[in-house]
Design brief:
This is ABC transporter permease. It comes from Nocardioides mesophilus. Keywords: Membrane, Transmembrane, Transmembrane helix. There is one protein chain. The longest helix has 35 residues. The protein has two domains: 252 residues, no CATH class; 243 residues, no CATH class. With 526 residues, the protein is mostly helical. The relative contact order is 0.09. It is built from 24 helices and no strands. It is globular and about 65 Å long.
Length: 526
């Protein structure tokens, strides 16, 4: 029996388990790219508008740090790549990380890998199957990106290169996740380390692009963007991605045979002999499990807000030169600056919902890993076990929306000199908290009544993102847009704050949570 025996069978198993999840990822990323490409072409349809974009956006350090090197922005093809690349590059990286960790370390953590190992399955089969599926999904996204941009006067070479750069980055982070899964003993830690690697890659790329130095070549994201599609059309930077990925896959294979199934190469740090007083309560335990997430999300939202705030001047100048954009913002009923801030606060509210949904599903994770039963074996009731961690969900979500608004206000104050915007935007950010909590409550409801479908809460968040970001471009019917709780929140600062929608959204969140608790109390654990 070889080390890869059983890989085709495991590939089929992975595809069956992810028969919904992976198509959603692939179709969402391709769909967003397709719609965004059409929107860009429709928005910048005159030479004057294209030159205005290049002058205002291409020269901004903030947008260069956020979107990458300003390549060929004097052409609509260059603008198209500039506007769509960040979303699809980050998305394909996240898809690859989650797929590999889900089918390697997470499977070992719950004991299914050990069960498979008792059959005719090679030691490297699980990692190989996860890598194969993640890379194949990344290639499908890349092909979809190619097809999405081809109709817009892209040459075949440039379109294929753009798609290949996307697939290459997904492959790199699939390989990074495979190494993290071998080194670390818990899926959450492996995901966290892989996501930290993505953050480091983004930071190195941003610093390298802004300062125009060699730091960009230390980043896998930089390699994908240095192909300079539509301008130089360089294929050779992708060789770096291929060689780096191959090296990491070989390393992952070498690490696999140096550890026992169920454990990582790096041993878990032994804890103290007895728990502190804070861990003797469900709230203390919930905080201990989620404090890292709160901190990481808080820093990310603060930086996210600062990036939005730092380009407010450029957006005003660009809108002034573009009648299409001006018409879009005029539909909001407010001035350009307030309309821009309204969009920024909405996107940061949806981003905060990412933490809220993950936090609300934490109980589902603990149940699946078998760690919930010992908690319930003590003096903790099911109601308390479910509701107490939600205090962290609510408090953490409030901190995150405040962090996003604070970052937006600070950056705008630094750009314009108007310090009053700091407190104003920070306070207005809280308007989105009830909508965030509704999405978290959906996770609680699913955990209580249908734990097998609890992860569908993430689909709800994705739907809200598409409606909030692309709803106007897609011309969705009103009954679809009303499905998003964020559509019922006042569009501050364009619209005044009204208590009614915020109150009934809060009541809805509380009601869904109560229903989830009822279901959790009635069903079997596990």
């Amino acid at each position: 029996m070889s080390a890869l025996t059983g890989t085709p069978q495991l590939v089929r198993l992975v595809l069956r388990r992810d028969r919904v999840w992976l198509p959603v990822w692939v179709l969402s990323l391709v769909g967003i790219t397709y719609v965004s490409a059409n929107a860009v072409v429709g928005t910048y349809d005159t030479p004057a508008e294209i030159l205005s974009y290049a002058r205002n956006i291409g020269s901004s350090p903030a947008t260069i740090a956020f979107d990458g090197p300003p390549v060929a922005l004097e052409t609509i093809q260059g603008i198209l790549v500039y506007e769509t690349s960040l979303t699809v590059l980050l998305g394909v990286s996240l898809m690859a990380i989650f797929t590999v960790v889900r089918h390697t370390r997470a499977e070992e953590e719950v004991g299914r890998t050990e069960l498979l190992a008792s059959t005719v399955v090679g030691r490297h089969a699980a990692t190989a199957a996860a890598m194969f599926v993640a890379v194949a999904a990344s290639v499908l996204v890349g092909l979809g990106v190619t097809v999405s941009v081809l109709p817009h006067s892209f040459g075949t070479n440039a379109a294929l290169l753009y798609g290949a750069s996307v697939a290459a980055l997904g492959t790199v982070f699939a390989a990074i996740a495979s190494v993290a899964a071998q080194l670390l003993g818990h899926a959450r830690t492996a995901r966290g380390v892989s996501l930290s690697g993505l953050g480091v890659a983004f930071a190195l790329r941003a610093l390298g692009d802004v300062n125009d130095n060699a730091l960009v070549w230390l980043s896998p994201m930089g390699w994908s963007q240095q192909v300079r599609a539509t301008e130089a059309n360089r294929w050779w930077p992708l060789l770096l991605s291929v060689v780096f990925s191959a090296g990491l896959v070989v390393l992952a294979g070498a690490l696999t045979v140096r550890r026992d199934i169920g454990s990582g190469v790096l041993p878990d740090r032994p804890g103290p002999g007895s728990a502190g007083r804070s861990l003797s309560t469900p709230l203390g335990l919930a905080w201990r499990l989620q404090r890292g997430s709160v901190l990481a999300w808080g820093v990310a939202l603060l930086l996210f807000g600062m990036l939005f705030g730092s380009v407010s001047k450029e957006v005003q100048n660009m809108v002034a030169d573009n009648p299409t954009l001006a018409q879009y913002f005029e539909r909001t009923g407010g001035n350009i600056t307030d309309a821009y801030f309204s969009t920024a606060l909405l996107l940061m509210g949806i981003a905060s919902a990412g933490f809220a949904v993950g936090s609300a599903l934490r109980l589902h994770t603990e149940e699946g890993a078998g760690r919930l039963e010992p908690v319930l074996a003590g003096a903790v009731t099911r109601t308390r076990a479910m509701l107490t961690p939600l205090l962290i969900t609510v408090g953490g979500s409030a901190l995150l929306v405040l962090a996003g608004g604070l970052g937006l206000g600070i950056a705008d104050a630094l750009v314009t000199g108007d310090t009053s915007s700091v407190l104003r935007l920070t306070g207005l950010a809280l308007v989105h908290l009830p909508a965030v909590l509704v999405l978290a409550a959906v996770g609680v409801l699913l955990t209580g009544w249908w734990p097998g479908g609890a992860l569908l809460a993430w689909v709800g968040m994705a739907v809200c993102f598409v409606i909030g970001w692309l709803g106007g471009l897609l011309d969705l019917p009103s009954w679809v847009t009303t499905l998003s709780p964020f559509e019922h929140v006042p569009s501050v600062p364009v619209d005044p704050v009204t208590v009614g929608p915020l109150l009934w959204l809060s009541v809805l969140a509380a009601g869904l949570t109560a229903l989830g608790v009822i279901g959790f109390r009635r069903r079997d654990i596990g």
